[in-house]
Amino acid sequence: MAATHPLHARLQREATAESVFRWATLCSAALVLLLLAGVLTSLAYGAWPALKTFGWGFLSTEVWNPVTEKFGALAPIYGTVITSFIAMLIAIPVAFGIAVFLTETCPQWLRTPIGIAIELLAAIPSIVFGIWGLFILAPILQQHVQPWLIEHVGPLPIVGALFQGAPYGIGLLTAGLVLAIMVLPFITAVMREVFQMTPTSIKEAAYAAGATQWEVIWDIVFPWSRAGMVGGIMLGLGRALGETMAVTFVVGNAHRISTSLIAPGTTIAASIANEFAEAVGDLYTSALMALGLILFVLTFAVIAGARLLLLRLERGATRRYA
Amino acid sequence: MTRVLRRRQFMSALALGISMLATILGLVTLGAIVWTLMVQGFSGLSLNVFTQMTPAPQSPGGGLLNAIFGSVLMTAIGIGLGAPLGMLAGTYLAEYGRGNRFTSIVRFINDVLLSAPSIVIGLFVYTVVVARVHHYSALAGAIALGIIALPVIVRTTEDMLRLVPKSMREGSAALGAQPWRTVTSVVYPAARSGLVTGVLLAVARISGETAPLLFTALGNQFWSSDLLGPMANLPAVIFQFAMSPYENWQVLAWSGALLITLFVLLLSIIARSIGALFGTVQRGST
Prior knowledge:
The structure holds two protein chains of two kinds. Chain A is mostly helical. Helices cover 75% and strands 1% of the residues of chain A. Chain A has a two-stranded antiparallel sheet. In chain A, helix 6 packs antiparallel against helix 9. The radius of gyration of chain A is 26 Å and the shape is flat. In chain A, 46% of the residues are buried. The mean pLDDT of chain A is 88. Chain B is 77% helix and 0% strand. Chain B contains eleven helices and no strands. In chain B, helix 4 packs across helix 6. The interface between A and B is large, with 93 and 92 residues.
């Protein structure tokens, strides 16, 4: 009798809907994991012919010759590391300065507008930075900055090796500069957020003990937010390593390694973006896939490390205030 | 004693002065980029940009109509794929799986995918879609964009659902509602503006993406509405035109870059305002 009751049927329907919905959400969540596995597997699958042919030598060979089908990843890896290093070298101190200014010295009424502006700038598509680098920054560097560097810094011992050759405008240095400008808003936003997490009471205690404003920043805020800052910097680094469009325009796309920073070079992402659609032959495509695999593993390690750091920090913070 | 104090104060002023210079330097540089973009972009912007197809090199006139259409279409399909799946996944993380181990793993991997290089997603879609059917297609481009949108939506959905007070869920459960009905009839409406913000941010994120489209949707000189064939899209056109030696192409590249930037900024501002509104409603209700 109960089975024929309309309410019973309704409850049955609800229960079915419940299990369907629950299952759908679970599957979607599992899809995220599947996606990661899929990306890794497909890249490894695509990269296999090249890795089998060249072995570990792939990582340490500079040659990149589609005609003779000899491929090595050293030049793109070198370019990726150098451009990201230049970007970090410039972006970290500037971002630190901006974050200090925004949280400590900036007048109250100006904080929100500048903060919002920086967050909006972080949303600008990277291709805009690339096109700006190509049409505006590169000519300026070529006509004014690089000739000076070549003439005055070039002859110096050791440092001079970094500025040899003709002023092309485009090259590793230009790519590093564009990357620095691109990751600047991002790193600044994270640093600012972390700085604001420092409890006011501790800062006030330091002021009460007679510390100057800078001493409070350097000895109180800085140690307090070190882990978060490192996390933010590593996230920025992850971006810089994998960034494609901002770099492809200005790096010069030359598969060679030069100690000179003003010489054209290439990065992993730029090589893939430039050559993949036109790559003929299975080995060529596979070599580019192998580059993609290297890039993915590299950025995965950096980003995962950053996230773990930030995660631990978050947990620590909730424990501290709980 | 006073000398030490004076030195400390000098050091402080010096350091803070340098930080102010850093701010000026950073803002001026970023401002210069936006300024150049405006000047160059607007100078080439005319009605033609919206009504004509991409031109041949060095031929007068022409616009970006086919590219704009392709971008809008692929972004829409990408969001259509990414948003429902992302919301369901976010719902699992915030509701059913709250606190379990699987949830923390998924959340972690999602956060990593959030910042993974987009060109690698392009390679992935190339391998599983383009290489299988042996031709480039707009659909493959849309799938790549959907994959990039997914982690953004998973993240914002989870964050927004977590903001909904537990008491509302308990009230619904006390009336005899199954969890799914609580989620769809109580939690989703309560978090609606937050969910919309998440989708807007995802649209902003994927509409400027270039790298994953280069070898999925490829590009097309002509008008095409065939989802299974190569299709023009703004980012790829900007890339191709900016790298070319032809002046009329370069002008159009700037205009295209301006259009994308304005669109992304507009979306970000709308998302921010909705978010701010949502935040005050939340605070007001608790």
